[in-house]
Design goal:
Radius of gyration: 17 Å
Number of helices: 1
Distance between the termini: 35 Å
Shape: elongated
Largest sheet: 3 strands, antiparallel
Order of helices and strands: HEEEEE
Number of strands: 5
Structural class: alpha+beta
Strand order of the largest sheet: 1-2-3
Strand content: 15-25%
Amino acid sequence: GWMIGSGLLATAAAWTTYESLAPLADVAGGGRLPLQAPDAYAEGSATFVREGRLYVTRAKGELFAISQKCPHLGCRVPFCEGSARFECPCHGSV
């Protein structure tokens, strides 16, 4: 049992390391993305842009582009409409 558990733990650690260090293969860095006009993004909204795997959100009158990938574990972090926050399903950060 210990050997199986150790093997699974090593596999999970290797996958997490790979995910956190590997660049996004299908997104060209520094490229342009088709976005809406700035006034199309409502205050407190979060719009997912599939081509860039990111969210565009407006807070305090400013526009922000936020990566979908969690910097801690590499999980996909969705925007929760109910709480109006980004909530990581892997470890519960907001």
